[in-house]
Amino acid sequence: MNELNTNEVQQMKRCSNKNCKDPVKPITEFPKNKASKDGHSHWCKQCHADYRRARHVKMTVVEPDTDNVEMAEVEAEVLTAGTLD
Ligand SMILES: [Zn+2]
Q1: CA of 66 to the centre of ligand 1 (A)
Q2: pTM to 2 decimals?
């Protein structure tokens, strides 16, 4: 008779990432994970995205080739000085 519409009651879950800015979210904000007890990942989608982005940035960091830039500038100065005389 008094059946609750469970679709309207959102189950909340706490993100286990201690760096999470907003750890308590609806379970729909957690990616599905069959290995987990409740069927959802311990980390929210935002934390997964941040983690992936951080790793990607680390892997693609390229050291700026400052030596070549400095050499080119010195060469340009030498050439300019030479033509002035
Ligand atoms: Zn999180």
Answers
A1: 38
A2: 0.56
